[in-house]
Write the structure tokens for this entry.
Amino acid sequence: MNSGIFGLAAFGFWMFVAATVVSGVWDSIRKREAQHETLRRMVEAGKPPDQELTNKLLGTGKNTSRDLTVGGLITLFVAPGLALMGYLIDERAFMPLLGVASLVASVGIGLLVAAQFAKRSEKQDSGYPPLG
């Protein structure tokens, strides 16, 4: 009897995760459609959209290197927390969680390296004139 309840609880959890992911994707699709509709109506009305508004609506003005740096720092600071958690739980849990912490630290370092590459790429791309 208990295994059936645990199975339903696990099913409910994964259904919640799936519903959250699907609603996030649906929301981003709707926002993107609204942005495109705004540009379409401006063009149909005879108003040429300026470059700043176009960049804002289409998302080309995003700072990728900053986003990667923030993600990398957060991920990097999670790693010692995992190692500490393994130490506080039990001696047997320390080594596996130390391995997980090193994996998480590697991902954080990779995100920071990617941020440097993105920053370098953004600097190189800024030398070209804007399209349009």
Q: What stands out?
A: Residues 62-123 form one domain. The radius of gyration is 23 Å. The first helix runs from residue 2 to 44.
